[in-house]
Design goal:
Elements (H helix, E strand, L loop, with lengths): L4 H13 L3 H12 L20 H23 L11 H6 L9 H5 L7 E2 L10 H4 L2 E2 L10
Parallel strand pairs: 1-2
Helix pairs in contact: 1-2, 1-3
Length: about 140
């Protein structure tokens, strides 16, 4: 059976809930470097239509966090096909930004806060925007 973008996203969900940050990093890189396959384009990630409201909000937040981290990588010249572009190349031909699928941006915030870890420190992330507290997405930003 072939792997799918949703399987990868749900693995990230499990790693984040379990505070296994190294695996979040590895899975993010794994997803990023599938860029040559159109099924793995962020805008093509299918709506999981998860019946669990909290998990659905968390998964949508992961998708938006991945989009932000992928755009950050592209801004550094790191391409999804593992090639590199210089800043001079990007000045004349800027990288095409990655976009989230419509379903992910449409998922509303949770009515009650969902606390993932012991921290209550607030950060401006897609997780915080959906009232998910303590989800750390810094491990999605690696090179």
């Amino acid at each position: 059976m072939r792997d799918t973008p949703l399987c990868s996203i749900y693995r990230i969900y499990e790693y984040m809930c379990a505070n296994i940050h190294d695996q979040v990093q590895y899975e993010t890189e794994y997803f990023y470097y599938h860029g040559d396959d159109p099924r793995w384009a962020m805008e093509n990630v299918p709506d999981p239509q998860d019946e669990d409201e909290e998990r659905y909000a968390f998964v949508a937040s992961i998708v938006e966090a991945l989009v932000a981290s992928f755009n950050w990588r592209l801004s550094l010249g790191l391409q999804r096909d593992r090639s590199h572009r210089s800043f001079a190349e990007m000045d004349t031909n800027p990288p095409q930004r990655v976009c989230a699928p419509d379903w992910a941006t449409a998922v509303p915030p949770l009515p009650v806060s969902l606390v993932i870890s012991g921290t209550t420190q607030r950060r401006k992330t897609p997780f915080e925007a959906r009232n998910i507290i303590g989800a750390i997405n810094g491990h999605m930003y690696t090179v």
